[in-house]
Amino acid sequence: MTEIYKLSENVYRVISWEYRKLRESLMTKYGLLDMAFDGEPELIYAGDEDKASFVRGYTLDFALKPYLDGGFEIRLGLDPADRLFGLGDVTRKHVQHRGTSVYMQQADYTAYGPTPYLMSSRGWAVLLNCTYAHTIDMGETNPDELYIHSKRGVLDLVVICGESMREALYLQGKITGRPTMFPKPFYGLTVVHNEQATDRSVIEDALHYKEMDIPVDTFGLEPTWMETNYDETLEKKWNRQRFNFWEWQGEDAYYFNFVEALNNMGYNLSLWMCCSYDLFWKEENDMTPGAEGPADDVSGRIIQDAHLMEGYRMDKITKREEPWFKHLEKFVDNGADSFKLDGAWQVIPFPDRVWANRYTDDEIRNMHPVVYARQMKEGFENYTGRRSMIYTAGAFLGIQKYAATWAGDTGGSLDVLVSLMNYGLSGHSNTSFDMYARDKAAIHAGFLAPWSQHQNWSTWDYPWCFSSPGLTESYRWYSKLRSSLFPYIYTNAHTASETSYPVLRPLCLVYPETSAYDGVKNEYMLGDAFLVSAWKNDIILPEEDEWYDYFTGKKYDGPRQFVNNPTGVAGGGLFVKAGSIVVMQDWAHSLRNYRPDKLYIHVYPGKDTAFTLYEDDCYTDGYEKGEFAATKIELKDNVLTVYPREGTFTSYRGRNFRSPTGDDSMPAPVDFEVVWHHEDGTTVSEMIPAAAYAEGPAPVEMK
Predict the structure, then answer these.
(1) Looking at residues 12-39, what average pLDDT do you find?
(2) S-S: 533 plus which of 224, 393, 494, 573, CB 3.0-4.6 Å?
(3) Distance separating alpha carbons of residues 405 and 410, to the nearest angstrom
C-alpha cells in the first residue's frame, strides 16, 4: 500500500508498506519531525502502484518496493544535471556525492552524524524518515539512479521540489527544525582544560588568559571533574580532591566557590558529560504515562519473594520515573552554564539492549544523539528559563534545533572541514572541531568556524606553553578577531535560525550553478562576506565576485587561482567579498556581560548591498516570539545609509543568571564608526552618532 500526502505546494510525503502493522518511525512518534508542515496534510493518492511522480519544472520518478516483513528499497532516476549534496557527517571524502555510496549508521570516528537528507543542485531533495541503518547509492552502481535500501523499517520519504538548494534547505527546516540560537558566550571561544585541572588551576588559567589579552568565554572541564571518572549514573558528584565545595552549603553550593569566581571574571563553565541512561522511558512516559503497563497481580502468591516480583533488568542505572536531566540540576545550581556530550556511549552500539522494554538498538542507535540533546536542552531551559548551551559529538536528523556539534575525537584537519560543509548542506549550522593549537592553520580554521573550541584533553596546549615562534601571537590575534566579529557572526546565526541557510557555506551552496566548486574542500564562506581558505594554500576566488584580502587590503578580481602563503599571524587565507558590510565591535576579554558603546561598520565597496544588524537579549527564547531589534544598513551608489533601529527586547537578568550589571533595559543605540576600505589597501573612517539615525535615515558618502 502506498499513500502520498501533499504537505504544501511543493512538499510531499510518500509512505509505503506491505504489512500495515509495521510501526511508524520513532522520529515522528516522538515529535522530532514535524510532518504537519503548513497544516493538515492532504491525501492525494492511496493505492498499490509502485511509482509516483512529482512535477515542478522537472519530473522525479520513484520505483518503490516495500518488503513483507519490514524494510524497503527506492529507486529514483537521476538527470545528468543532478549534483548531490547533504548527508551530514557520514563521509569526509567529498562534498558532492554523486557516483558514491554511503552506509547510514552512527559510528565512532567514521560517521558521527549520518543525516538522511540529500538534495540536488536542481533544487529537489529527499528526506528519509528511517532510523534503521540503510544504504544510499547515488549513482555508484547505476550512474542514472539513486538507490536507497533498508532491511528494517517502513518507507517514509519526504520529497521536496524546490527551485534551488537554498529553498530546499528552507523547506527541509520546516520539518526537521531550524538551527537554534545559543547564548552570547557560545559565539566566542570555548577552552576545555586538560584532565589535570583543579579549581585553583582553572582560576589561575583564566587569569593567565586575561593577563595575556586573549579573549575566552567558556571554560570546560574534562570527566575528571567527577568523583568517579566517566560516571554515567545519577549518583555523580564533584571530585572534591580537585574541586572543593563546602559540605555545609549543600549540593547546590555556588557562592564562595570557584564557579562564582569564574563568573565574576566574566566566564562561563562547561561540564563534560557521558550517558548510557535509557532516555526512552521519558519519551514513552511523556506520550503515555505509565507506559510500561500494570504490574503482575501477585496477591494470591503464597510466598512473597522479591526475586519473583518482576523481571530482572540488566540496566542498573536507569530510574524509569526520573528524567535524565533531573540529577544535573544541582550542577546548574553550582554554576554550570553548558554541557559537553561526549561520544562515550553515544556513538557506539549496544547490540543486546532493549530500550524502554520496547525497541532494539538497531532502531535507536542513529536517533539516540537527538533524543539526548533534546532532553538536555529542554531540561536546562525548563529549569533555568534561559537558553541552553549544549554541544555533542553525535548527530542525526533534527540535531540543529537542540545542540551544536563538534567533529568528535578527530582533531582538526581538512577532512573535518568537509564534515562541517556536509552538515551545513544538511541544515545544521552550529558546527566546529577540536582546534589543534600547535598549528597556525588549525588556529585559523578553528577561530573562523561557526563556533570555536580549543580542547586540551591531557595535553598542555595553553598559549603560554607554546614554543613555536609567533604561535602565541597568532592565537591572540585570532581570538581578538573572533571577539570583534560577534555582531557579524550573531547576525548570520540568526539568519540560519530563520532560514536554515548555514553560517559556514560551501562554495557549491553559494554558487550552485558552477560545478567547478563541487570539489573545493578547503574554502568556504563564513556568513555573507568572508571567504576562508584553510589547511591548503591553493586559492580559488570565484569569478562571480571581486575580493579584498583581509590581511593586506589588496583587491582581486575573480576568477583567480593562486597559491596563498600566509605570513605573520595568518594561518590561512581570509578574503572579503566586494560589496560587503561587516559590523564589528572592540574585542573584550569575554562576551558574557559586554555591551559595547560603539560599533564599526566596515564597508568593502564593489556592489550595492545591505546588511541588517540583529540584536536580542542573547539569553532567552524571546527572539522566537519576535523580541529583537534590527538596524538596516544599506550601501547604494557608494552612499552608506543607516536606518533607525526597529523592534524591542528586554535584557535578561533572570533566575540562575548571575550578572554584576543588573540592568534589564534594551541597550541604547550606539555610535557607528564607518570604515571605508579602498582598493589600494588604505582605509578612511568617519562617525555616525546614534542621534543621527535615531529619527530617520543617516546617509554618508564614501570617503
Answers:
(1) 87
(2) 573
(3) 13
